[in-house]
Write a structure and sequence with these properties.
This protein is α+β, with helices and mostly antiparallel strands. The protein has one domain (about 1-75): K homology (KH) domain (GMP Synthetase, Chain A, domain 3, 2-Layer Sandwich). It has helices at about 1-10, 40-45, 50-65, and strands at about 20-25, 30-35, 70-75. A three-stranded mixed β-sheet has the order 1-2-3, with helices on one face. A hairpin with a 2-residue loop joins strand 1 (about 20-25) and strand 2 (about 30-35). The longest helix has 17 residues, at about 50-65. About 10% of the residues are buried.
């Protein structure tokens, strides 16, 4: 799942080397925390959050067919 997120996000940003993903796995849920360069934050979120929503839609759809746990994607500073 991390590779999917990186494949989607890295072409969108100006600083692809600063894209990082932290994974927190609890009982029944997996949270992916996406961190990007401060200047790229707007590109990842998009106008009215449309890009972020689209990224989440793809990730959740891919996870729904392969994961038994609930998957969440957070974009952090």
């Amino acid at each position: 799942m991390e590779e999917l997120i990186l494949t989607i996000v890295k072409p969108l940003v100006d600083y692809p080397e600063d894209v990082k993903i932290l994974v927190n796995e609890d009982e029944g849920r997996i949270t992916y925390q996406l961190s990007v360069h401060k200047e790229d934050m707007g590109k990842v979120i998009g106008k009215q959050g449309r890009v972020a929503k689209s990224i989440r839609t793809v990730v959740y759809a891919a996870a729904g067919s392969t994961q038994q746990k609930k998957v969440f994607l957070e974009i952090i500073d």
